[in-house]
Structure formats: C-alpha cells, structure tokens
Amino acid sequence: MGKKFKRNLKLLTKKTNPVSVSERLSRLTQVCRGWLNNYRLTNIYTKLKKLDEWLRNRLRYCIWHHWKKADRKRKNLICLGIEKGQAYAWSRTRMGGWAVAQSPILGTTITLSRLKRKGYKPMIDYLNRTQTSIF
Predict the structure, then answer these.
(1) For residue 118, which of 37, 29, 51 has the smallest C-alpha distance?
(2) Alpha helices in the chain (DSSP H)
(3) Are 6 and 51 contacting, i.e. CB atoms less than 8 angstroms apart?
(4) What is the C-alpha separation between 38 and 36, in angstroms, rounded?
(5) How far apart are CA 89 and CA 131, in angstroms?
(6) DSSP state, 89?
(7) C-alpha pair distances (Å), 15 with each of 21, 102, 127
(8) 42 close to 118: Cβ distance less than 8 angstroms
C-alpha cells in the first residue's frame, strides 16, 4: 500500500477542509479509481479492506466535525434514528472526534449503506468488479 496514496486520502478527508460531503466523495472516488486501476492486478484485497474501514472512519470524523455544536449533533443523531435521551448523551460526549468516529456513536448511525446512498463507493466493490480472474 503506497504511503503517498494514503497521504493523499488523508488530505482529501481532512476535517478542516471546507467542502461538502458530496464533493469530498466525488474527489475521493476519482483518486481511488485512478490508484486502483494501476494496482488492480495485484493481491491487495486484505489491505484494501483495512484501508476502506479507515477511510469510512475518516469520513465519519469529517461529518462529526461538520456538525460542530452539541445541539446540532443531537438533532442529527435523532434524525438518524437514535432515541432522544441517548442522542443527548452522545452529543455531549467528551471523547475526541476520532474516537467518536470509531465508536458505536457514529458506527451505528452513519453506516456503510448510508454512506453509499450519499455517494461513497468502497474500493473493495470497485476492485471486485474490475479485477480479472486468471483461472
């Protein structure tokens, strides 16, 4: 896995970068497809799976940071299906943004299917579609 590629992904998913979620996802898709087209004949499935998980957590971190205020976090968590009391507690957590992104707070609310509906395209799916079988 290229360090330069991961560094590029990190720059694209920087929380302070003022771009919308859809624009961020379209840029990510372009960069990931370009990189995957270069390495699609190699055996990178397990590493790519870990990179996809890391990338999803980065996106959740950006979304959590974008919500900024505790009250807005509470309202958005309620919109995502969390009960009011639980949403209040989770919105006022003292955990840092990266810890929240990896915790059930965002893992159960901003799921893979929700990210896909927004436009996120996992690298594993693209690799499975494009990788040719030798046998």
Answers:
(1) 29
(2) 3-12, 21-39, 45-67, 70-79, 84-91, 97-102, 104-107, 112-118, 123-130
(3) yes
(4) 5
(5) 45
(6) H
(7) 11, 15, 27
(8) no
- Residue 43 in tokens: 């055996």
109 Cβ neighbours under 8 A, 6+ residues apart:
77, 80, 81, 82
pLDDT at 134: 57
Identify the residue whose tokens are 């901003």: 110
pLDDT at 23 > cutoff 80? yes
The span from the CA of 130 to the CA of 127, in Å, is: 5
Alpha carbon distances (Å) from 106 to 9, 80, 129 = 20, 10, 28
- What confidence score (pLDDT) does residue 55 get? 95
Residue 24: φ, ψ to 5°? -60, -40
125 touches 56 (CB < 8 A): no
pLDDT for residue 106 is more than 60: yes
